[in-house]
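thought: fold this chain, then report.
action: predict
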Amino acid sequence: ISQHPIAQTLFLSEPFVTPLGTYTFSLGRAILDNSGAFDGYVLSIMEPDYLKEVLESAQYEQGVHASIVHTGGKLVFRLGNGATAAENAGAQPDPVFVGHLQSGKQETSNYAMANPGEERRLAVARTLDPASLHLDSSLVVVLSRDVNAIYEHWNHDGMVSWGLYGCGSVAALLSVPLYIRRRSTKERLEA
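observation:
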C-alpha cells in the first residue's frame, strides 16, 4: 500500500498465514495527507471463513463445489471437496481458474476435470471486480457440478418418455392383427 499510495484504490492481498497460524487475507486503503503524500493506511484482516455463507448460498444442490480464488492464483476459500482453504493453500491453481484468467472475460463456462480420473464437471467462473471499489486485484468465484448430476433428471424423464412411447408402440402393433381379424370376421358375417 505504501509503495503505490492511491487514495481510491482498495488493496486486496493474496491469502497468507499469519504468525499465529491463521489463514487469512487483507483489504486496505491508503491514507494521504493534504498534499497527497502517503500518511498511513487502514487495513482489515479477513478470515476466509467469513465468505463461507456467501458460497453456501451458491450450493443449491448436493455436489456443487464453490471456491473463491485470488487472481494471483491462491485459493481463498473452497466448499464441496471436503478440504478447508488452509489445507488447499499450497494447491496448484484450478485449471478452470487458469482458463478463466487466460480468456480475459468477466465470466466463462466450460466442461472440465480438475484432475485426471475425476468426474467431468460443468464449471462457471466469474471475476468479482466492481468498478466502484477500485480494487488493485480481484477475486474469482468458481462454481462447478458433476455433469451426470446435472442431467440426471433429464435422463430420468427421457427414459420415462421413451418407455411410455415404447409401450404405446407395442400396444399399437399388437392391436393391428386383432383389428384385421375382427374386420375380416365382420365382412364374413355381412356376406
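thought: worth noting. The first strand starts at residue 10 and ends at 12.
final: C-alpha cells above.
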